């Protein structure tokens, strides 16, 4: 087979990718205002399912952007998602990225309670005293715990990005979050991941960057 | 809607997930010996396409396991993949995980040459003096550079995990790597990602852990 490479300058690869995504989406209906997020998820996964499975609560994107501008911090359930989020872009607005999964006190609580570290890490995050966005890309148990903490009135997140991936309670945990009054961006069904969680955070950050340029 | 959660103990979630994956794969043909890798990619993505798109060069898994036992280090093209690889498990065999994407000298070379940092980071990796596994989950330009370095006889990787994701030269870069004599694990087509790159590394590490238990 003859392999041919397309000549694209390094600075143009992303724009060219988004052109291809936009073209292939054709007239697939997307909720107005959510397009940059949906397209970035497809960019990150090459999986057009995200054009259909992403669910946004009413005004979720506007509320998320406002939260970031207010200096919201982001809590993730994996070091991978933390590594993938553009921390410099977030820091410009005053926020930080937290992941408590590797913390000794979280491990200790998980062992004591017989729960997942993901659940214990949400309990730790609930003690943070700042506006919070949760970006859950791995553990449905984290999302279930967020649901409980929200329903008990112990936390009031500015946004929950609910995109755990997998086969055990993943679908159900997302449906639970969508029952709350908390703004959410959820990938309905089994799909998601740390990469998707990070990419939704970055899509939001880049929307602010671009609107700042205008 | 009534949401029902399945009761599964934290330590049993992964095993239950693999049960579901195995059941849903049914009699989908997989190359013998590659099943733990294919299933872990599906576990990481909830995307059964990986049962079809993963390509293994002859004996790739055995060669990869031997490389890890020999103390091979892993070079990735993203901090996310680095964050996702089980570094403790790798260190037991003597290897480390490297990602040079954020290094100032890599940024400087990329600027000077007008190339991607991914390409420059592969040039830096080529100077490492140890057995190497490359785990490329993001940048096709990294994979193309590896192809060139291999063809020029400047590197001789023990394995190339070629799973960049996306729309510009991703498909072609994978086909290029499959033309070399280097052992490879490639996700043919557009799909892949840092999460998939990390998960293939981990699947290999867990295969060694499990065989060590016997």
TrEMBL record, chains A, B:
Record-linked SUPFAM superfamilies: Precorrin-8X methylmutase CbiC/CobH
Pathway where it operates: Cofactor biosynthesis; adenosylcobalamin biosynthesis
GO biological process terms, semicolon-separated: cobalamin biosynthetic process
GO terms for MF: precorrin-8X methylmutase activity
Keywords from the named record: Cobalamin biosynthesis, Isomerase
Residue ranges of domain Cobalamin biosynthesis precorrin-8X methylmutase CobH/CbiC in the record: 12-207
InterPro entries with a match to the protein in the record: Cbl_synth_CobH/CbiC, CobH/CbiC_sf
Highest taxon above the source species: Bacteria
PANTHER family: COBALT-PRECORRIN-8 METHYLMUTASE (PTHR43588:SF1)
Family of this protein: Belongs to the CobH/CbiC family.
Name of the protein this chain belongs to: Precorrin-8X methylmutase
């Amino acid at each position: 087979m003859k392999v041919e490479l397309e000549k694209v300058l390094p600075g143009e690869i992303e724009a060219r990718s988004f052109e291809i995504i936009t073209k292939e989406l054709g007239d697939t209906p997307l909720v107005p205002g959510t397009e940059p997020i949906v397209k970035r998820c497809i960019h990150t996964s090459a999986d057009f399912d995200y054009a259909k499975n992403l669910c946004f609560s009413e005004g979720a994107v506007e509320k998320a952007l406002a939260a970031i501008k207010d200096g919201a911090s982001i809590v993730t359930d994996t070091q991978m998602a933390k590594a993938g989020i553009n921390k410099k872009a977030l820091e410009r607005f005053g926020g930080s990225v937290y992941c408590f999964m590797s913390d000794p006190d979280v491990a200790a609580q998980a062992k004591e309670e017989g729960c997942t570290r993901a659940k214990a890490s949400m309990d730790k995050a609930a003690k943070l005293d700042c506006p919070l966005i949760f970006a859950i890309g791995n553990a449905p148990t984290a999302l279930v715990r967020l649901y409980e903490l929200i329903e008990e009135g112990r936390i009031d997140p500015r946004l929950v990005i609910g995109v755990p991936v997998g086969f055990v309670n993943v679908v159900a945990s997302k449906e639970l979050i969508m029952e709350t009054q908390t703004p959410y961006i959820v990938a309905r069904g089994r799909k998601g991941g740390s990469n998707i969680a990070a990419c939704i955070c970055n899509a939001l950050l880049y929307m602010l960057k671009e609107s700042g340029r205008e």
